[in-house]
Design a protein that fits this description.
Elements: E1 8-14, H1 17-35, E2 40-46, H2 57-63, E3 70-71, H3 79-97, E4 101-105, H4 109-120, E5 125-128, H5 140-151, E6 154-157, H6 160-168, E7 179-181, H7 185-200, H8 203-206, E8 222-225, H9 229-232, H10 235-248, E9 254-257, H11 260-268, E10 278-281, H12 286-294, E11 298-301, H13 304-313, E12 317-319, H14 327-331, E13 335-337, H15 342-350, H16 370-382
Parallel strand pairs: 1-2, 1-4, 2-3, 4-5, 5-6, 6-7, 8-9, 8-11, 9-10, 11-12, 12-13
Helix pairs in contact: 1-7, 1-16, 3-4, 4-5, 7-12, 10-15
Length: 383
């Protein structure tokens, strides 16, 4: 008779700041269950995909996420180089730790490398945020999602649509029950950290973003984020987006926290001096970002996570892409896909006040308890 273990060892692979946020939510659930007598050992592995202090260390501090036991120091590079180095170094960690399960998040190179290294060692892979599809295979993120989902033994989806995407690909056969809609762990984080952000963040005052003669309830700026390779690595698309932001910035401040990739490209093409109506700032911490999002007049972004955060905060969002994996935010009316045409971007933003988004539908992204559900299901399987 097979003897069940009294504890579970899991290796968590992270490398980019959205993954730190998701992992922090699951880590809190682990700590809560351990206090109730469970025995879960989590080994945190940081690939080093994000290595800038403002993209990395500050996040661990704010999120109260334990320091990684392993930091692989991979850094930047081509997709092949970065993924290859991660594979080699993650495999070495897994051979040392020999966990029951490996947990990966989202759709980065760290996600794929962690899943592939574990699968080749016959260690079950858990993919959190499984089933997302943009159906654009020119995006590296889409390739990472597809491959990780087909490697995973357990697929925790954030929405019903994500489940349906996996069913269409034949990943769930109705018997194994590998696929489960648990809700979105990012929603867990929003509920937990937004209150802290309101109390601790002073970013609006620091940036002089308080509306004249008004309270914080009157939005007086647009918030923009820009980081996806499809936009930053294409000079034409990048210039088009910046042209739109610059035009909008003539009337209302446009705040653009600069991703290191975006900053590097803008500097290479001499774009800082060309677009002077955009207030470019250094990357901000998670709490500061939440404060900026919650009080913005509107958000312009190419980030999937920011699209959802805009939806949760009920801030109108304009997405600087031609498609999105978060179709629910578009269907709700809070998000609009505009691509990169500067005229269309400006037009849509100017129409925001006339647009009346539908009310936020309850339950689309779960109830804010996804992380606890994930950990409980893994415990039932491995302990």
């Amino acid at each position: 008779m097979h003897e069940r273990k009294s504890f579970m060892k899991m290796v968590t692979i992270v490398g980019a700041r959205p993954q730190f946020i998701k992992a922090a939510a699951v880590n809190r659930a682990i700590q809560r269950l351990n206090k109730r007598g469970k025995r879960i050992q989590e080994i945190l592995v940081h690939t080093g995909q994000h290595y800038d202090t403002l993209m990395d260390k500050v996040f661990f501090d704010e999120l109260e996420l334990p320091r990684p036991l392993y930091h692989l120091g991979v850094g930047s590079g081509s997709h092949a180089k970065q993924t290859g180095l991660m594979l080699e170094r993650i495999e070495a960690v897994l051979r040392i730790e020999n966990p029951e399960v490996v947990v990966v998040y989202g759709d980065t190179n760290s996600t794929l490398a962690g899943a592939l290294a574990a699968a080749k060692l016959n260690i079950p892979v858990t993919h959190v945020e499984a089933g997302l599809r943009s159906y654009d295979r020119t995006m590296p993120e889409e390739i990472n999602r597809l491959l990780t989902d087909h490697l995973a033994a357990f697929l925790f989806c954030p929405t019903d649509q994500a489940v349906q995407n996996l069913l269409k690909e034949g990943i769930e056969d109705g018997k194994t029950r590998r696929v489960k809609n648990v809700g979105d762990v990012m929603y867990d984080s929003i509920l937990y950290y937004s209150k802290k952000a309101e109390k601790k963040s002073t970013i609006l005052k620091e940036l002089g973003l308080l509306a004249p003669n008004s309270s914080l309830r009157t939005p007086y700026y647009y918030l923009a984020t820009l980081h996806r390779a499809e936009n930053t690595d294409d000079p034409k698309r990048l210039r088009s987006i910046l042209k739109a932001l610059d035009e909008l910035g003539r009337k209302i401040p446009v705040i653009l926290p600069l991703h290191p990739r975006t900053k590097k490209v803008m500097r290479a093409y001499g774009l800082f001096s060309r677009f002077k109506n955009i207030k470019c700032i250094e990357p901000v911490s998670y709490l500061n970002m939440l404060k900026l999002e919650k009080n913005a007049k509107a958000i312009l972004t190419d980030s999937g996570g920011v699209q959802k955060e805009a939806y949760w905060f009920r801030i109108p969002c304009v997405t600087l892409r031609d498609e999105t994996e978060w179709v629910e935010t578009v269907r709700s009316g809070w998000n609009k896909l505009v691509g990169t045409d500067p005229r269309k971007i400006v037009q849509e933003v100017n129409q925001l006040e006339k647009r009346r988004p539908a009310e936020k539908r309850k339950g689309i992204f779960g109830d804010g308890k996804a992380s606890g559900e994930i950990v409980r299901k893994l415990i039932r399987r491995f302990v």
